[in-house]
Design a protein that fits this description.
The chain is built from 6 helices and no strands. By secondary structure, the chain is mainly alpha-helical. The chain has one domain: Growth Hormone, Chain: A (Up-down Bundle), CATH 1.20.1250.
């Protein structure tokens, strides 16, 4: 019974952390779209490229996360922690990075600008995409039900993403500058990483 209570507590905490992770992901997406519009100009081609790169990064990141979780099944929480730290670090430098790169490539043709936008979004999206299969591997060991584990984590992350998009567009942009909103998203990643690391240490 004590083990069951402990497992449920860990899963509840992990669910909250993954909810926050989803929120930060959409805070980035909404914010980066605006920064890229500032750096490269606002047009539907740019928006299409950003969304496509983000989705592709999530997809390939999921494949990478699955491979890593299969290779290191006992290190899944630590892998998740590393992904969140990586996303947070990229987030902290992303505002300046995007503007600097924009200044360097603004005079190039559409293909080059599209490629640069693609790479700028792809890097963090790969890390974001890796988080879901990594956590699924961990949660499956607790519930012994891959369908339940996948559905639960996907739902939690999606609800977090919905809240992050809503708050960013309708609340945060009214009270904070664009660069501060991105920093807030990065801080959320670091909070998630610290919380996950504490769970990992508790089970080590």
């Amino acid at each position: 019974m004590n083990k069951l209570i402990k497992n449920n507590t860990v899963l509840a905490v992990l669910s909250c952390l993954f909810f926050l992770s989803g929120s930060s992901g959409l805070m980035y997406q909404v914010s980066w779209q605006r920064v890229l519009n500032i750096a490269f100009g606002s047009n539907y081609e740019s928006a299409t490229i950003i969304v496509a790169a983000f989705m592709l990064g999530l997809g390939f990141g999921a494949i990478i996360g699955g491979v890593l979780s299969d290779k290191y099944p006992n290190k899944t929480l630590l892998l998740f922690c590393c992904c969140e730290i990586g996303i947070g670090l990229y987030g902290l430098m992303s505002y300046t990075l995007i503007l600097v790169v924009g200044d360097l490539f603004i005079q190039y043709n559409l293909f080059v600008i599209a490629l640069v936008n693609f790479i700028l979004v792809l890097i963090p999206a790969l890390l974001m995409g890796a988080t879901l299969p990594i956590l699924i591997t961990y949660v499956v060991k607790q519930w012994n039900n891959i369908g339940h584990s996948t559905g639960h984590l996907y739902a939690v992350n999606t609800f977090g993403a919905t809240l992050g998009a809503f708050l960013t567009g309708f609340v945060l942009f009214h009270y904070f500058t664009l660069d501060i909103v991105i920093v807030l998203a990065a801080l959320i990643n670091f909070v998630v990483a610290i919380g996950t690391f504490m769970l990992f240490r508790g089970e080590a």
